[in-house]
């Protein structure tokens, strides 16, 4: 993801200045500080991500959590945000992809903090569109959806928890804006017809 109004060639290490839409009509140059913190996840060769972002001005910060790693790292995220950001509210929670080591910790964030929006892919919602990729006549749309929900149980549980708490859930397809960040990839068609079928196997 890049801040809105930026091209990859514009990105500088500090992300200190960039153009943002202003009242939906013009662009205004805005000085904005962005903090990005990578919290440790796991201890072995395979581990997920747990990333905190904060931007804005003192007293008017926006907070994003990008992936949550494991349950333990989810608790670290919550503790970190409370102690270092001084808030119990996260504006945007983003699950980059539905692997358990990226989604598990986000449930801790949703359980212990107030959350404005959840951004995550829901591959089980595309079972009807991808069923023809499987050459097994016994597979139905419902059985494929259940298979995906089971395989990606941490992400599916996250979706259900958001629904229980009344948190709106959006899918992060290319072009979507999440706060000041624009999603670069992937588009809906590639996701449904290339990525979901390979994850369902």
Describe the protein.
With 201 residues, the chain is an alpha/beta fold. It has one domain (32-200): Metallo-beta-lactamase, Chain A. Helix content is 34%, strand content 28%. It contains six helices and eleven strands. The protein has helices spanning 71-85, 100-112, 127-130, 141-151, 153-165, 188-200, and strands spanning 2-3, 17-22, 26-31, 33-38, 50-57, 60-68, 89-95, 114-120, 169-170, 177-178, 181-182. A six-stranded mixed beta sheet has the order 4-5-6-7-8-9. Strands 1-11-10 form a three-stranded antiparallel beta sheet, with no helix packed on it. A two-stranded antiparallel sheet has the order 2-3. Strand 7, helix 2 and strand 8 (114-120) form a beta-alpha-beta unit. Helix 1 (71-85) packs across helix 2. It is elongated and about 55 Å long.
Instruction: Count helical runs.
Output: 6
CATH fold topology: Metallo-beta-lactamase, Chain A
In total, the number of domains comes to 1
Unreliable sequence segments: 5-30
Proportion of helical residues: 25-40%
How are the strands ordered across the major sheet?
Answer: 4-5-6-7-8-9
Q: Kindly, what is the distance between the CA atoms of the first and last residues, rounded to a whole number of angstroms?
A: 28 Å
User: Judging from the principal axes of the Cα atoms, what is the shape?
Assistant: elongated
What sequence of helices (H) and strands (E) makes up the elements? Answer: EEEEEEHEHEHHHEEEH
